[in-house]
Amino acid sequence: MLRVVGLKLAQLVPVMFVVSLASFFILELIPGDAAAVIAGPQATPENIANIREQLGLNDPIVERYLTWLGNVVTGDFGRSLLPPGRPVADLMRAVLPVTLQIAVMAIGLALLISIPAALVAANRPNQPPDRVLSTGAFAAISLPPFLAALLLIFFFVFETDLARWGILFTGVVAILYYANAARARAQRYPAGRHRHRYVLRTGSVFAVTTLALVALVVFLPDFPRQGFSRITGSAGLGANLRTAFLPALTLALTEAAVWMRLLRSDLMSTLQEDFILAARAKGMPRWRVLLTDALRPSSFSLITVLGVSLGRAVGGTVIVERIFNLPGVGTLMVQSIVGKDIPVVQIAVLLLASFYVLVNAGVDIAYGYLDPRIRRGRV
Amino acid sequence: MSESTNPSPPLLRVRNLSTGFETPRGLLWAVDGVSFDLDQGRTMGVVGESGSGKSVLVRTVMNLLAANAVVPDDGEVLFRGRNVRDLDAIEERHFWGTEMAMVFQDPMTSLNPVKRIGRQLTESIRFHLGLDDDAATERALELMNQVGIPEPKKRLRQYPHELSGGMRQRVVIAIALSCSPKLLIADEPTTALDVTVQRQILDLLGRIQRETDMAMILITHDLGVVASYTDEIAVMYGGQIVEHAATSDLFEDLAHPYTEALLASIPRIDLPSHARLQAIGGRPPDMVAPPPGCRFAPRCAYRTDECEAAIPELISVADRMHTCRCIRPLVSHRDVAEAVVAPNRPGSS
Ligand SMILES: Nc1ncnc2c1ncn2[C@@H]1O[C@H](COP(=O)(O)OP(=O)(O)OP(=O)(O)O)[C@@H](O)[C@H]1O
Ligand SMILES: [Mg+2]
After folding, report:
1. pTM (predicted TM-score)
2. Mean pLDDT of A92-103
3. Of A4, A128, A140, B128, which residue is 20 to 30 A from B148 by alpha carbon distance?
4. How would CATH label the architecture of A89-340?
């Protein structure tokens, strides 16, 4: 496994080279004299000369690239052109943790929602739980992110009682549905000890679920309308999670809906395979077959899309950052682009592209983990 | 053979079993009124063209059907006296694998490609027999030896794609045997393998069947297989058993025109080992709207108008064990012919 990872990383070197080239030459995309454009219409010739000097525009291009690359590799990211001219490294250090945290939480939430939902739906296609989940997914996909954000803010910030009742109602309906199914199943156990044990076991599962539901409804935290509290801030982890939750959930909703549909259809086709029938013919329980036989071979598309989503989420989600007023990468990027703050844009593009490349390398390695046949082929 | 002297019920008794599938065109009756008995220690061959319902029959027997399947209540599968459709949850849990096990046609697709052989082998052992990891591995190694897999220790850590087809099928057989089932169903276990390996796998199945005295249902296209590895044969056509007899009787006294056509499609009657069924003229019946009378009538060389009037009953021919679904079984043609010829034959009266 280590060898595979090492090889994969070695393959990244040329990719990273291209990424660095692309990030650097963003500057060249500006038509005309870059320094003049950056300096703006009111600039004096000294201003322009200054900027030209700062960007090293007077040097030959190859030399400029090499200097820039050397600086970046040694950790010198340069300074912002906008006053007060802060170091780019500081700017990135301020925004990256916010965006990374939200992105990772969003992906985690989306997985937490989509995998169980897909399993439930694919286990018994076209039954009521599948219908409800598939319809919900369809609605969530059609919902534009800004609307999702506003709806979440409406329910979880302003009308929390409505949210509580909504959660309670949904939870109770689901519990009643499954309790009814469990009652029917209990009849299939021979009366006496076995049925007793079944009732006891499922009963405790239901009790725990109900308790969790009630706890959720009663202790539903107060989510702030906007802003971000850093983990390192004085308010601590709790406040941090509360500020990150709604933005993450906004991002997660659409992703989860897409993933659920993807995984559901992949699961359904895997469940047609002979080896699933063979596992059932061995007497393996239905849920165990679903989890240990069907899930892994069905998760290829999910992993692929997950890589793309993570990259996108880290690339900055301007809309969500704006709505929740988060100091994230997206906001910084937009500001820098509008302000023609080229050094910041270059570094931001470089970091995000590198992250994207790394994530996708991780996805490739995950394929190998998921399917031993690929593992063979790659090495 | 000694069914008449054996008062205890057979291991498996199937009565009037039908299986339909809901399809866009209507209900498709893949299995239609099948009955048979199978005793412990015996091997029954099931032959028939593709689509005749062989796989659906055994899946119904195992109660392993797709969600769109319909099984009418008057059909019964009694396994050791219990109807498998009424098993309660505890019995059901230990029914698959420990009572009946299945070997599938294609070992390329019936093993999970992303699970190590060891796990696939031991999971049912651990689940059904409650053994711990070490004991389960011990048992797995024993099973692999039994089915003739060399270097079993190494195999445990391998994935299915690292094994040859024959080895994979041995693994599938080892898995099927892992909890000592009373009935092993092999659904065309050698169709996907090459010829030399086919014989090895069948010999293996035959040997294990004898050693463990389990019952076996062997589904196949290959009449050579049926002849040398089975005690009795059921011939299926259009979801029905059209002829059922002890293997030797069937080959000597075949009664149904379809069986005759099957045999005629083999080059020589002394059964070369790997004769394959060749297409018989005409097409198998449409099972959503089957022909009114005998299902085989449209393709039958002996067809009369009477054949299309009603579905023929299964009747005994020659001896009680030999049944056939034909109003004019070939045995009786021959009897008639002999009766006509007999007076003229010297030295017979
Ligand atoms: N899930 C299903 N839904 C609809 N029709 C089905 C389903 N499974 C099987 N059938 C139909 O049932 C009929 C019998 O199929 P079956 O697989 O039992 O044939 P078979 O005798 O095993 O053929 P083969 O030799 O090709 O394996 C076929 O016409 C098939 O199309
Ligand atoms: Mg079949």
Report:
1. 0.85
2. 91
3. B128
4. Orthogonal Bundle (1.10)
